[in-house]
Amino acid sequence: MSKTPTPHIGAKKGEIAETVIMSGDPLRAKFMAERFLENPVQFNNVRGMLGFTGTYKGKRVSVMGHGMGIPSVGIYSYELFNFYGVKNIIRVGSAGSINMDLHVGDLVIAQGACTDSHYVDQYELPGFYAPIADFNLLRGAVEAAEKFGYSYKVGNVFSSDTFYTENAHNDKWMNMGVLAVEMEAAGLYMNAARSGNHALTICTISDHILTGEATSAEERQTTFTKMMDVAFSLI
Is the pTM higher than 0.85? Predict the structure, then answer.
């Protein structure tokens, strides 16, 4: 008996490409489909989480939203990896800088992802797990950012379980060299590792937690195209 469609994705097997570029905001996925894909076909609208498959420079690729936080990206990436035969997920999203050399509009390519989430507990590992990106995707993203001339940094991000928090401890993460705060990379990297597949997170700095620099919701939805250029260069 087929496991597709799943409870959260309405696509049939074969309607999703082996590489999926994902964003938290489903409207950003729609924007990517309209901007980058040739002949995009919508494969999902369950719970409003839009997904499209088309071609980019002759290669088949899908784009899809994943929602906010590790529980949400955990559901969608698990189903894509385990039920739809997806091999690569590249997340493009926003992040808050905690590095004085990372400013609004700069890119962060997440080599690793620290977290305060307990998502890893399900694996019952006898120690601490360090979620990391796929090296080939990481290397390709760095090469693409260099080619485009985009300002970027590579390193650790912090995947926080809380957006509004009374005790953020950003100074402590900053002291450990963490570059920025986002909410999904660690869970995505764990699902990729457990399923034997590949993942990468590329974020645009949307605000600076230390200096107060910020962008609007509309700007985050429609103007963060540099990370998309890098992501699509990996197809």
Answer: yes
